[in-house]
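Look over this today:
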Amino acid sequence: MPDVITHPARLDMTRYIRPGDTVAWSQACAEPLTLTECLVAQRAQLGSLRCFLGIPASRTVGPQHADHLSFLSYCGSGSNRALYGAGALDIVPCHYSELPGLLARGPLRADVLLLQLAPADEDGNHSLGLAHDYLAEAVDTARVVIAEVNDQVPRTRGPRVLSPASLDVVVHTSRPPAELALRPADMRTARIAVQVAELVEDGATLQFGVGTLPEAVLRQLHGHRRLGVHSGMLSDAAADLMEAGVITNERKTLDRGRSVAGLLMGTRRLFRYADRNPAIELRETGYTHHPEVLAAQRRLTAINSAIEVDLTGQVNAEVAAGEYVGAVGGAVDFLRGAARSRGGLPIVALPSTAGERSRIVTTLSGPVSTARCDAGLVVTEYGVADLRGLPLRARQEALLAIAHPDHRSALEQALDTSGVPA
């Protein structure tokens, strides 16, 4: 049976964590804030630790904590950006679908897991609450599992529950989970969202990435019918569509009647809606991102954003103006899944400019996050470029047509003398 701590201030992490350990914790709204705050406060006593971070919804860690802690992540969003800018964060460039194996068995294997769980049910088992995601598999391989059981965390449906025997330490708390509220879409983002929404067919199953643009697309779908969800995350806008009867999941090939996601990313509005809701099921990354599962979903429509796209269809979703702000993430997993899905649509959407710079470019300013062989539909406020099956010259013409008009001439002049991007 686990050690049970009813007063969080009495948690002594030196009893469970050893110098040199790799520590991982649930990301975004599922971050166990009491445990991560304790880790940071006790870092000098704990010694040198390697910490794996996901998408942050808090500012628990900062560059000042790199005196004893080293940080790794697959992404540069939120407060991770400050860590990276200070040289305190190293990036693991990998597909999201690889994370469970890396953290459970691979070179990033977690020695210690910090989780936030819902209160026990009548059988004494704990729901994983706000995230199944990429840490569920590591529960079985970590040396120590420390759980913050928070009575304000929703009980969500999923195939995995944790019994007391799965836990080494239980810390009881009562505090609001971290929230991720997105800023409202501006007029340009709304125009892009309208373009994307027009591509979505009734009865489609949706995957949507993180950020203001995918959320804006969801808010344009209230006139649609019988939509489904199979995504890495579920948001406030998706909950609104479920409550409005737009997302019913009745046409899904798999998991009919249920919205499937890896984690909840939003506000208390979403958490309340998901609590004990049988129409929402959280699954581990090995299922949400599995290529065969994705390909089996008819009309899987993958909606992801990007930093820039070159004239061959290569996508940079990681680096902007020399700063690591994004991720390889799950975009390639879902774009490939949608491409293999019967009637599926692999969509990348982005504004045509960032300040005075074009985001349709001849040469990417960052890494190739998505190869041109995986290119599908690219959408800006100026239209849709369907690159599927197009040779290079035709791709060039299609992408120039959706670039900002002020940049089209310069883009044409910058091309090779052959007229075909390399």
The mean pLDDT is 96. The chain has two domains: 3-173, 187-414.
